[in-house]
Amino acid sequence: MIAQPYELYIERRDPTRNMARYYVLSIQATLFGDVQLTRRWGRIGARGQAMSHSFAREDDAVRLFLDLLRLKRKRGYGPKGRGAAMVSRR
């Protein structure tokens, strides 16, 4: 069981390269009591792709969540507006 679900939405836009991408990370509990990190990505306005990772412990899911966030920030992803990326807790 997880303490709180996490959800993050970030984008990367570069009009000179015709680039408009999104990346979504979320951590939620499964029906079986495990923790699942789901990530979705693609072109803004398109359905995109998805991948899920299951964990027995919330700490492991949060660690991967933060590692992926760090990697995406290096590649130029950020919040929809300007400023620092925000993690929302439901």
Describe the protein's architecture and organization.
The chain is α+β, with helices and mostly antiparallel strands and 90 residues long. It has a single domain, classed as q64v53_bacfr protein fold (Single Sheet), CATH 2.20.140. Helix content is 19%, strand content 42%. The protein has one helix at residues 58-74, and strands at residues 6-14, 19-29, 35-43, 49-55, 88-89. A five-stranded antiparallel beta sheet has the order 4-3-2-1-5, covered by helices on one side. The longest helix has 17 residues, at 58-74. The protein is elongated. The two termini are 15 Å apart.
Produce a short descriptive summary.
19% of the residues lie in helices and 42% in strands. It is of the alpha+beta class.
Secondary structure elements and their pairing?
Elements: E1 6-14, E2 19-29, E3 35-43, E4 49-55, H1 58-74, E5 88-89
Antiparallel strand pairs: 1-2, 1-5, 2-3, 3-4
